[in-house]
Automatic annotation (TrEMBL):
InterPro entries with a match to the protein in the record: DUF4398, HEPN_dom
Leader sequence residues: none
Sequence ranges assigned to domain HEPN in this UniProt record: 58-92
Protein's UniProt name: HEPN domain-containing protein
Lineage: unclassified sequences, metagenomes, ecological metagenomes
Length: 92
């Protein structure tokens, strides 16, 4: 009985850690729409010649879009959605 207590405690810690990590990840549905909208905004800004007068903003938008796609692949949908929305704003 005393021998099993440390094992039980460790199992509980591992379980709670797993739940915490899972809660930090997904946070809602996949951000496909937000990423698609950001990509459209970035592409339109690029075609409009934005790099000639707002190169910094366009670069920021592209970087954030790239990071959003990476976060989505890794399952952090909340961060991916946030970055996609930021990219869209930067591109507009």
């Amino acid at each position: 009985s005393l021998i099993n207590r440390p094992r039980l405690a460790m199992t509980g810690i591992v379980f709670l850690s797993t739940l915490t990590l899972a809660g930090c990840m997904s946070s809602g549905p996949r951000p496909d729409v937000a990423i698609s909208q950001a990509k459209t905004a970035v592409d339109q800004a690029d075609r409009a010649g934005t790099r000639n007068y707002a190169a910094y903003d366009l670069t920021l938008a592209k970087d954030k879009l790239k990071k959003a796609k990476k976060e989505m692949k890794e399952g952090d949908y909340k961060e991916a959605r946030f970055l996609a929305n930021e990219a869209k704003v930067d591109a507009e």
